[in-house]
Amino acid sequence: MSQDDSTYDSVRIQVLEGREAIRKRPGMYIGSTGERGLCQMVFEVADRAVNEVLAGRAGRVGITLTSDGGVRVADDGPGESSLEALMSWTGAGAGLRGRHDVMLGHAGVGLVVANALSSRLTAEVRREGVRRVREYARGVAVTPVTGAGPAAGSGTIVTFWPDTEIFGATEFPFDYLADRFRELALLNRDLDVLLTDSRRSDGSRSLRFRFPGGARDHVRLLDARTAPSGPGGLGGLGFEQEDPRMAGTMEVALRWRDAPDERIRSFANCHPTPRGGTHEAGFRDGVAAALNAHARRRDLLGAADPGLTARQAGAGLTAVVSVKLDRPEFHGSTRDVLGDDTVRGCVGQAVREHLGAWLEAHPEQAAAVVRQAARGA
Fold first, then answer.
1. Residue 29 belongs to domain with CATH number
2. Beta strands in 128-197, from DSSP E residues, in sequence order
3. CB-count burial class (<10 Å; 0-12, 13-18, 19+) for 212
4. I need a surface site. Which of 16, 32, 291, 317 has the fewest CB within 10 A?
5. Residue 1 lies in a domain
6. Based on the domain organization, do 118 and 257 belong to the same domain?
7. What separation, in Å, do the N-terminal and C-terminal C-alpha atoms of the chain show?
8. Span 307-311, mean pLDDT?
9. Which residue has the higher pLDDT, 159 or 151?
10. Mean pLDDT computed over 165-178
11. How many domains is the chain partitioned into structurally?
12. CA nearest 100: which of 269, 349, 240?
């Protein structure tokens, strides 16, 4: 190798900004240029609309996979004050939003990344009786803001067509999108999402996601493909509680089935935490503590019997644990493990108190749960 080849100085450094940076390295912004990346494009566009609903400024989000390969995201909010403000909108960045905001996208960069990676994007705002539209191509505006006549109602519509130069195949997986929006609606009982697939030759297919029962509905769905609840019969046990010590809220629901396996799903600020963390650890602490206290008080365990472990208490348990924090602390950039020991203590105490009260009020079902857990000793 020559000296020239091995020299790396400021002359050789490329500084990429904005649209150019996104198109050069799309994986940094949406994770991949395959199906996962396509779905992230939808999430980045829907992010703003979802938060409009959760803030009470809109009633519903509509997401349509169009017959010509595009995606239309619409809300019935007041409409952005200007198209320039709409298209410059970005999120606060991964992991930095508080309890009242949801982040669907990979990096929280919003419409900017979707615009840069689309061959074409149309933004429309309906506000104060006027409809305004602007067209973009690969992140660059190709028309001025154009008045398009009177508007009935208000809202914002963004329609985009992914750039085949970036993605190659641009077939959106309906089921993957449905799973994420269903999960999001289960975690936010005020959210109302209508997902429609208009690509089908046999007619469009629509799914509406709205779950006023929150975590209770989530647990019922997780158990939908199994036999009816087992000896615990804890269908519907759930609570939502704020705790200023952890600067946030928790929502928990659980039930036992007559089965050996455990199904616990945990979330932090609406983001799945498949590797758990302090909220999940606190939940397990609380369940074991409540069962052991009840079993000792009712002589369901002998004096010489060891206490039930968290693992035993989880036999046949289906549960959802969701926390929403002002300042979430995650281990690593993937946000799949929640930190902060304060959360563990808060969730553990709340679960112990709520479950303990339920066990006292339902002694026969409580005894059956304790027996099932003890069989796993």
1. 3.30.565.10
2. 130-137, 140-141, 146-150, 155-162, 193-197
3. exposed
4. 16
5. no
6. no
7. 66
8. 92
9. 159
10. 93
11. 2
12. 269
